[in-house]
Structures are given as C-alpha cells and as structure tokens.
Amino acid sequence: MFIVRRRPTTLFNRPCFAQDGEDQVLTSLLFPSEEKGFYVDVGAHHPMRFSNTYLLYRKGWRGVNIDAAPGSMRLFRKYRPRDINIESGVGLVPGTIPFYVFSDPAVNSFDQELSKSRDAEGPHRIKEVVDVQVSPLSDLIRDHLPPPGMDYPSVLNVDVEGLDLEVLQSNDWTAFRPRYVLAETFNLTIDEAVECPVSVFMASVGYRYMAKTVNTSFYQDSQASPPKPW
C-alpha cells in the first residue's frame, strides 16, 4: 500500500497567463539562450490577465507597457513596478482620436468598424467613447527605452484589437529591432495568416514567420540566429 501525497499532474504544470498560450510559445523560443531581456508590450491591457509578457516579468525580465485605456496603468504600477508603464495610444501620427471603451477592457479599441461590430454582436458592449492622445511607437520607444547597451529589447508584443498593422508601421525598424515580434492576426488559418497584411509588412522589414496561436502570429528578425532545438 502507498499514499499519493501529490497528484502527479501537478509536477508537470507550467504557469500560463496569456489567452492562448502565447507566453509558452515565447519562452520556448527565448530560453535558455535569453535568460534576461527586455520587452515592449503595446496594448498591454492588464499586468497579469491575458498577458503575453507577465511570465517573462516573473522570470526577471523588465520592459515597457503601453495601453490607451484611461487609468490602465494603476495596476501596472502596483504589480509590475520594475516596468516602465505608459498610458498612451499608439498611431501613425501624433494626435487625438476616439477610443472605444468596452464592458470588458480586453476588447477596447481604436478601430471604429470592429468596435461597432462587437457591440452589435455582443456579449461585450461599448460603455463610452473617449478622445485619447496617440503617438508613433518610434517616439514612445525613443523617449522611454533604456540607454544603448542596457536591456536591449528582445520582444515586441502588439495587441490593439484591430489596428496592429498601424502600430507596427509606426515603428522605426532601423533603430528598434527586437528579436521577436508578436502581433494579433485573429483566428486566421496558418495559410491565411502567413499572407495577411501584418505578415506581408513584417516580411518587408526583414522578419520571418515563426509560429502561430489561435489569435497571434510570431515573427523573428531574419538577421538573428534561429532558436536552438531542445
């Protein structure tokens, strides 16, 4: 006779905070070669819920979190104090544009067409529309990234509910070239995702398609060495 003091399945559990396991794919690509690094998370939403970067934070990484929702950075300052936390929208040109705030902030968006479609179909509803200041990603990175030689970014994560392409186009790919880029491509098939506008743009700036979850595509800088096999 023997006593099982712990369920065997718990021995193999791994923490996951991302909506579709993106953080597990990301850590598989990054580790063990990049045990410490820096990320930029655009459309960060929440310090833990649906976060593609919180697992990296728990592993000792730090980075920049950007979200347009009013008041969104309060929780980031509390739970991710090592990070630089910025309440701002990101767009191709500086200015002020309408931002659609939903009953579930995970689907907040600048995309008018997508927001009205979601509001009509439910279950999430538009609570209010507010004017929010936006800046190009290149400006925000220039103003907030650590000095050269310190924590050069390994990861750019973009999840802004419909306008990921515009965010990526607002970056300076010569000055800021992370090893991996994650962008939302929704529930496309792999064949569709490889040929979607986001993927075509990433290829044009020298990134190769690496992996996909349900809603997110992963791209690697073609100038970087491929991930090592297990």
Give an overview of the whole structure.
It is a single chain. This protein is an alpha/beta fold and 230 residues long. It has a domain at 18-91 and 137-221: Rossmann fold. The protein is 25% helix and 25% strand. It has eight helices and ten strands. It has helices at residues 22-30, 54-58, 73-79, 112-121, 137-144, 164-169, 190-194, 197-204; strands at residues 38-42, 62-67, 84-87, 89-90, 95-102, 126-135, 153-158, 180-184, 207-212, 216-221. The strands form two sheets. It has a seven-stranded mixed sheet, with helices on both faces. Helix 6 (164-169) links the parallel strand 7 and strand 8 (180-184). The radius of gyration is 18 Å and the shape is globular. The model has no long low-confidence stretch (mean pLDDT 88).
Q: Which features does this protein show?
A:
seven-stranded mixed sheet, alpha/beta, 8 helices, globular, Rossmann fold, 230 residues, single chain, three-stranded mixed sheet
Structural class: alpha/beta
Order of strands, main sheet, comes to 3-2-1-7-8-10-9
- What is the helix fraction of residues, given as a range? 25-40%
Q: From the 3D coordinates, which CATH architecture of the domain at 18-91 and 137-221 would you assign?
A: 3-Layer(aba) Sandwich
